[in-house]
Amino acid sequence: MQIKNLLLLSIITGIVTGIVIVIYGILTEFLKYILFFGDPMESISKLPFWYVLLVPVFSILIVNFLITKRETVKEYGVEEIAEAVVQNRMIFGIKDLILKIIASSLSLASGFAVGNEGPSAAIGAMIASKLHPIFKLPKELMRISISIGASSGIAAIFVSPVTGIMFAIENIAYSFVRDYVGYLIIAGALAFSVALYFLSPLVFHYSSGKFLEYRYIFASILFIPVITFFIYFYLGLKNRVLSILNFEINEKFSKYKNYIFAITGGLIIGVILLISPFAAFSGHEVVDYLINDKFHLPFSLIFIVIVLRIVATAVSIYANAVGGIFIALMSIGALVGYGFGEVLVKYGIHIEPFYFAAIGAAVFMGVNMKLPLTAVVLALEITYDYNVIVPTAIIVVIVGYLVSLNFTIHKLQIRINSK
C-alpha cells in the first residue's frame, strides 16, 4: 500500500509541478516584456535611463514587502524546506505558493541576476509536502516526497529530466538512491513532459555526438588554471561586495535594512542594466547565445561583463531577490569559457569558443555549488557532445579539488548570506 501511494504521489506531483512551473515560467517572461516594453536585450537602450533605474527598485521593494508579510516568500534551499516541514516549523499553503511565484517572477523579470531553479525546486517541494499527508505516507518519508517535488521542479524549469533527478540526489536524497530513485525518475519525467510543450530548453546546436576530438582534451588542460582563477575571483569579489554592503547598511540603518537593501540593490541593478542587459537577468539568454554562437561578444568586454554579473549576483541576493544562483553561475562560467576560447583562437589553436562556453557553464556551476555529478549530467543533456561532456567531467573534479584546498565553499556561503 505504501509503495502504491508513493507511486501515486510521484505521478501527481510530477504533473502538478509541471503545470505550476509552466505558469511560473510564462509569467516571468510576460512580466519581463511588460516592464521593459518588449525584449529587454533590445528595448533597454531605447528607454529613458530613469525608467530603467526605477523598474528594479520598485520591483524589489514589492518583493521585500511580500517577504515582510509572509516569510515563506523568501528563497529557501531545498534542504531547509525539508527540515522545516519535517519539524513542523513551516506550513505551506496555496497562498504561499502563489506569493512565491509572484515574488520570484518579479525579481527575475526586473533584471535581478538570480535563477529560477531555486524557486522551481521550492515550488515542487511545497507541492509534494502538501500531497504527502493526503496519501497517508509516514513522516519518515517526508524527505523523499520533498526530493520528488524538488526534482520535478528542476526537471520542468530546465526542461531537462535527468538534471532534475541528479540535482535532487546530490542535494537531499543521496542516502535514499537505492530504494527511492525510481520515484524521482517518474516525477521528473512527467514534469519535464508537461513543461516541454510550453517552455524552451537550453539546446546546443553544434553537437558532434560521440565523435571526440582530442584537441579539446588538450585545451581543457590549459583551461583548468583559468577557470580555477575565476572561481577564486568570483568567491572573493562576491564576498567583498556583500561585506561592504552589510557593514555600511547594517551599522547605520539596521531598523530599515531590508528596504534600504532593496533600494540600493535596485539602483545598482538599474545601472548594470543601462551598461549591459547581458550582465543582468537570470543569465539564461547569455548561456544560450554563447553556447550556440548567436552573437559575438568582443574580448575586451568579456571581463567587464563577468565582473558586472558577479556584482549583480551578489547584490541580487542581498536585496532579497527571490531566486537561486544555478543559472547565474552558469552564465559567468559561459563567459569565462567563451573568452578562453577566443584567446586560444587568437594564438592559433583551432577550437570553437562556444564549446568552452558550454564547458565553462557546467564546470563553474558544478564547482561552486558542489554538484559535480549534476554538472556532468547537465553537459550531457544540453549538448550530447563528447567534446563537452568529457572535458567537463575531467575539469569539474580537478578544479573542485583545487578550490577545496583553499575555500570551504559551504561555510563561505553561510557566512556571506548571514545578515
What's a quick, concise take on this entry?
The chain is mainly alpha-helical and 419 residues long. The protein has helices spanning 2-35, 40-43, 49-69, 78-86, 94-109, 117-134, 142-157, 161-173, 177-196, 214-252, 257-275, 284-291, 299-318, 326-346, 353-368, 372-383, 386-404, 409-417.
Largest sheet: none
Helix-strand topology string: HHHHHHHHHHHHHHHHHH
Number of domains: 2
Kindly provide the name of the CATH class of the largest domain.
Mainly Alpha
Distance linking N and C termini: 46 Å
Q: Helical region count?
A: 18
**Shape descriptor:** globular
Determine the CATH topology of the largest domain. Answer: Clc chloride channel
Summing up helix and strand content along with how strands pair, one would put the structural category as: mainly alpha
In angstroms, what is the radius of gyration? 21 Å
CATH homology group of the largest domain: Clc chloride channel
- Strand proportion, as a percent range, falls in under 5%
What is the fold's blueprint, element by element?
Elements: H1 2-35, H2 40-43, H3 49-69, H4 78-86, H5 94-109, H6 117-134, H7 142-157, H8 161-173, H9 177-196, H10 214-252, H11 257-275, H12 284-291, H13 299-318, H14 326-346, H15 353-368, H16 372-383, H17 386-404, H18 409-417
Helix pairs in contact: 1-5, 1-6, 1-7, 1-9, 3-5, 3-11, 4-6, 4-7, 5-6, 6-7, 7-8, 7-9, 8-9, 8-16, 10-13, 10-14, 10-17, 11-13, 12-14, 13-14, 14-15, 15-16, 15-17, 16-17
